[in-house]
Amino acid sequence: MAITRDAVIWGFRLILGRDPESESGIASHMRLADEAKLVEALLRSQEFRLSGRFARSMQMREPASAPTTATWRHEGRSSLKLVIFGNCQAAGLGRVVQAMTGDATIQTHETTPGFLHRVRSGEFDLEAAVAKADLVWIQMVGELTQAITKRMPKLAGKVRQLPPLNYAGYHPDCVYVANAAGGYLQGPMGEYQSSLAFWAWSAGLNVDQAVQLFTGEVFDHLGFHNYHLASERVLVEHGRRAGLAMAPLLDGWRARGCFMHTVNHPKIGALADMVAVALRREGIDPITGAAAWVEDGLARWPVWPVYPSVARASGVEGGSFVYKLDRGHCPDAQPVLTMNLPDFVSASYATFNRAGRANLRCDRVDGEAYQGLTRFVRERQSGLAKLAGTIGKHLTPIAGRTDKGINKTPTSPYADLPDHHFWRRAVAGIPASELDPVVHTSFKLNRSTRVATAGSCFAQHIARTLQRASFNYFVVDEPQGMSPEERKRRGFGVYSARYGNIYTARQLVQLFDRAHGDFQPLDRAWKREDGRFVDPFRPQIEPDGFANAQLTAAATTRHLTQVRRLFSELEVFVFTLGLTEGWRRRADGAMFPLAPGVAAGGFNAEQYEFVNFGADEVLADLRGFARRLRSVNPQARLIITVSPVPLIATYEDRHVLVSTVHSKSVLRAAAGAFTSEADGADYFPSYEIVTGTPSRGAYFEPDLRSVTGGGWTTSCECF
């Protein structure tokens, strides 16, 4: 039975509580098979599931009862009255706030087009909702923020912004496909569609051929492996606009694995971390661990898999092609249902076929990378050869090694390896001064490349070598009218900016965050014994110190401005890892180059603590810095080195020699792991050149710690 126009209109009114948004929307629903399908489509829509309509009617089936109150005394941090306006994350945010505060009263509103229409028409009393609240959190919905600011300026002080947690890095294939009605096509994963499946269907490939496209080679061509860079840039920038530091949160989330169900559905742990930061912004100390028991409502919706090669590029273990269906599409007895890749692509094709090519559009698939996909498949000599034959050109697989047409079978896997693989040929058989262990590099420097350096004291030697060899050593804080002697005394030009020695990867990460306003440490100025003040994060850079804390802070602000410029304009950044041991502030985690009390300040065990980073922590910090650097400078490349200089002292209860070997081993392992996985990042073996047995200890001074001129010259010349 055909569906009439009136049936569609009344279906919208009765089920969604509103009229259809357009005539095209009415027309698309009239094409459904019958009225039963119309009702099913409206009831399964995300708008209905989130609207809470009929909730009161359904409650009437149960005996009426008074609202329950807590029976037992419980932990309560705040009786805040909070209203949250946001996307589909709003309900989860509200549940987490309640758990973390105990007694907060929260109202949440999802700002769908229908809800915003109700605000504009006055059906929803925005002013009353804001007036009753102590605070209003808005997930950067500009229309609501402007409405409150303009229509009720006296209440605007209640408004706080929250960034929407959207992140496509784990699910770059996940897109929306627009239909002729002006909405989004609904398929096996709700409104989420596969860009690759849609391209293959549009190109006329069959389901089996489309499945063959889901390979790392195709993903790399489409840029899927780099989506996390843009996703991080956007999320961090949204955080800055909302006044929340998202970069440190991202570090923690990525260390735990994938933190998203889909491109715009975060897992509950990520929402909880953001809520904790937002509560602290309001002076509320959240209840630790309470969010662990909050139901992850977004897990009921579709969950998109992290494809295996995307997982590797994102630092996630495993990866799969298992698609978890929306709970609304599952029978009560089967609440969790999944699809494999072939079934998912087949179901997607069925969805596309029902709508028809003329009625569908996906802006992503219209982009240059997808337009060049046919050519890529034809030209690629790989496992795509079979598919390429169906597109128009069969590819011949790459042949194995041959000699005069005869296949050779090596007697050993080592038989044909070059000399640098063998100790006798590459080390024992040549003079130490001629040793050059650099075999391969992913990029090369020329004398116009802007190279910046930072790190422990050994990094100074690299800087001097670059300058002496007339490379373009990038320095951002050159003083004017200062004598060479004074420049040297005050530490200008030692590094690319006057940050002094940066011994740990954590210090480097925090330097970036401080420069970009994402981390404001509690320690701003330390007082010396002579009454002068210093910057806690570069306590020895200004030998005369500052007269007061205000002048110290002003100098720090100027310095961080220069650091921000450095990171955005450099082309190659050389960082030398020096230590794993260090000292940090307990309250905010701020890392210092020297323990409080050594050069300035005072040590208080209740405020400061010793830390010795492990390889996984150093690796996470290197990854975090690389992501940050690429967020402001996508073309930047990295060279990581490890300082060969032993520890001057250890705080661990063991021999300093043991601590030195431990520290350098951790740093070397982390540096190797990072540069083996990161694009545009190389490891330079200064540590091996100086400390390796070929030097026979000749590269150290009699104190067995200071590197001789010959040692650092030989190392840097290999550089």
Largest sheet: 4 strands, parallel
CATH fold naming of the domain at 445-718: Rossmann fold
- For the largest beta sheet, what order do the strands appear in spatially? 2-1-3-4
Mean pLDDT: 86
How does CATH name the architecture of the domain at 445-718?
A: 3-Layer(aba) Sandwich
Distance between the termini: 78 Å
Helix content range of the residues, please? 40-55%
Question: In terms of structural class, how would the helical and strand content be classed?
Answer: alpha/beta
Count of DSSP strands: 23
Residues in β-strands, percent: 5-15%
Please provide a written account of the structure.
With 719 residues, the chain is an alpha/beta fold. Among the domains are: 174-260 and 304-391, no CATH class; 445-718, Rossmann fold, CATH 3.40.50. It contains 29 helices and 23 strands. The strands form nine sheets. It has a four-stranded parallel beta sheet, with helices on both faces. Strands 15-18-22-23 form a four-stranded parallel beta sheet, sandwiched between helices. Helix 1 crosses helix 2 (23-30) and helix 24 (505-515) packs parallel to helix 26. The termini are far apart.
